[in-house]
Every structure is written in C-alpha cells, then in structure tokens.
Specification:
Length: 213
C-alpha cells in the first residue's frame, strides 16, 4: 500500500497533476507514511522530469507544470515536516544572471528545476551586481550561489563573484556553481566553482553538492 502511494506521488509530478499530488500527499500522511518519505517520492518524480528535459523529450512548459505539482504536494506535507523538526527544502540557493548580462531563460529554468525538486530558490533576476549575490546569500543563509553568464565579456564576472565571496568570508562554506554558453568545466575549475551545462545537469550537480541523490 505504501509503495503504491509513493509511486502515485512520483507519477503525479511526472504527469504534472497538481490535484493528484495534493490528494496523494494527504493519503500518504493518513496511511502513516512520513512526510520526508513523501517529499522524496515527489522529488524522484522531478528527477525523471529533469532527465527527460536533458534528453530533449519534453520542453519548458512540461517542466513548469511538473514543478507546480511538486510544490502542491510539498505544501500539504510542510506542516508535518515542521512538527517533526524537519524541513521540506533540500537546501537554499541564490541564483542570478551576472552584471551586464540580460539573458535569463536558462537561469530561470534552472531555478524552476531546483524549486520543483525541493530547494528554496531566491532568483535575483538578470544584470545582478556582484555584492547582491552575497548579501542575499548571507541574509537567507544560503547553501549555494548559482551564477549564470551567456556572453564571453560577462563570464569573467563569474570569477569575480567567487572572489567577492572569499573576501566576505562566505566562500567556500557557501558553494558556487556556474553555467552559460561561454562557461566550461575547465573555467569552473579554474575559478573554484562547480559547473552545469544545462538545467537537467544543474539539478544533478546541485544535489551532489548538497550531498543528496
């Protein structure tokens, strides 16, 4: 019975069905399944969606609908998680496109993926000045800062974000991940950050950085 309910939650996210995610989460709690187990089931569904997106089997609208279903289920489970002294979130991420760069579709998609998987995401938008990353990270007790840059001239600011974090004494306790057209694994390693090529990969990398599967 428990497996059937957990499978129902996973499939609700895959199918983007917020109603089923909501009722399934209620059923999980009624049947004695822990809120944490239910959240993990929802997150596993989002993992399938991330892989499908990475493989170009689905597109942004499907990802957004799946994320909505994930969030709908988590809303039901949050009170029980709070009672148990647990948290619905897998971690806290500050994300933004660097100063001088107004490209934000990829960045926005990464935020959607992370939020749907159970991360608390603070999206600063585009053309983000370097100090704002760390001011926000400090104020929300972030685990990770994600920095997007699409142009070669603005990719250099990713390095400056890392340097600013060092100066503030926040990095490397708060980790950094970078992405964008001109970023690369070699560039990320050079500046002391992790790297993801796309939104699906970003979800996997961030989970690994947070010690999650």
């Amino acid at each position: 019975m428990s497996k059937a309910i957990l499978d129902k939650l996973k499939n609700a996210v895959i199918e983007g069905d917020s109603d089923v995610a909501t009722t399934g989460s209620k059923d999980a709690l009624k049947s004695g399944i822990s809120a944490k187990e239910a959240v993990d089931a929802l997150a596993s569904g989002m993992g399938v969606i991330a892989q499908k997106f990475e493989d170009a089997e689905i597109w942004l609208p499907q990802v957004m609908v799946a994320a909505d279903a994930m969030i709908a289920g988590i809303k039901v489970l949050e009170p029980e998680l709070a009672k148990a002294g647990a948290s619905a979130k897998l971690g806290t991420v500050v994300i933004g496109t660097v100063q001088g760069d107004i490209h934000d579709i990829g960045k926005t998609l990464v935020g959607i993926m992370l939020r749907g998987a159970g991360f608390e995401v603070h999206d600063l938008g585009r053309d983000v000045k370097i100090p704002l990353y760390w001011e926000t990270a400090k104020s929300v007790n972030a685990d990770l800062v994600a920095v997007s840059a699409l142009m070669s001239t603005t990719t250099l600011f990713q390095r400056n974000v890392v340097l600013a974090g060092k100066e503030e004494g926040l990095y490397p306790k708060i980790k950094v991940i970078v992405g964008g057209a001109c970023a690369s694994p070699e560039w990320a390693e050079k500046i002391g950050a992790s790297y993801a090529q796309n939104a699906g990969e970003a979800l996997k990398v961030v989970k690994a950085m947070m010690g999650r599967r």
